[in-house]
């Protein structure tokens, strides 16, 4: 047994024995009421664990790192499994030892010279002020010398996985429900002058009740004025609007609305709308379907140097219904409004929520509050299940309310 593991065992035992002296800090870190008390059986379990430290056998480097954080904050989390690895973070699935609720743990490695990545700082600063049923909740932040761990609510799936699981043939009713929830969360952000800047199916999480939540705010920005100079290296290529593809760094909320249109198309067809491999190919796919932009469709485009340098053919716009036949007339109208070249004409999230496409959901859907507890029953009752062919009936109580 290595000296490192022995030291970790000793350190873990000291931490476990000190449990009674840090109950108040437990409450603070879990963002729970200050009068919360640890149950006696939980404290007894901790004492048993202190007599049998779990690190007294060889473990992998990844498990050792996870166990170290778990030991340091043992009263909060148990690491269960690695879910995925991102560009600057590793995400684990975990469980709170206090509430038994599942959580997602986003562990961000800290470099001694550089500190926390700007994406992590940005995500924390924005999410701590965003409280909405359709935005993932940041429960807690754990800071150690080597890493920063963000504790999020856990959701089972994302929109990409949901599409895969239903054979890329989603119920059109569920397309409408997910689209409405996406717009709800986005409207909440835009009203607070926050741009997401990285909308894609993988960043839209879905829980077992059918709630969809915006996640991964690592590229999000708070804007202080209607337009401001930002980086144009934002938004995954397939969901990036043509103005940003052509080098624009002055943008506002319409940057997100283009991505919403691409996601609506992807839910309705089962495949990405513009799966380009390069910027030029992405623009080519867009222009081939929507038509090569002109001064009439995009004011000022003729003076854009990058646009002129590509020498695109003069494509005529194609009829969208031929490419998205499962969308009804109102759905095609909404899709067209989301995919306008001119950002000044592109529909906003708030206006899109009032679009006739959503009339079939009923008027009371607009009365749902921002609180997740008030809306989860509605999503559960109104989504279609299976392969999108059978409908979950609304209960009698919900019928009276909605």
UniProtKB/TrEMBL annotation:
It catalyses: L-threonyl-[protein] + ATP = O-phospho-L-threonyl-[protein] + ADP + H(+); L-seryl-[protein] + ATP = O-phospho-L-seryl-[protein] + ADP + H(+). It is an enzyme of class 2 (transferase). InterPro entries: CDK (IPR050108), Kinase-like_dom_sf (IPR011009), Prot_kinase_dom (IPR000719), Ser/Thr_kinase_AS (IPR008271). Keywords: ATP-binding, Kinase, Membrane, Nucleotide-binding, Phosphoprotein, Serine/threonine-protein kinase, Transferase, Transmembrane, Transmembrane helix. The chain crosses the membrane at residues 72-92. Its EC number is 2.7.11.22. The keyword Kinase applies. Pfam families: Pkinase. Residues 77-358 form the Protein kinase domain. GO terms for cellular component: cytoplasm; nucleus. It comes from Sander lucioperca. The lineage of its organism: Eukaryota, Metazoa, Chordata, Craniata, Vertebrata. One of its GO terms (molecular function) is ATP binding. Belongs to the protein kinase superfamily. CMGC Ser/Thr protein kinase family. CDC2/CDKX subfamily. PROSITE patterns: PROTEIN_KINASE_DOM, PROTEIN_KINASE_ST. This is cyclin-dependent kinase. It comes from the Eukaryota.
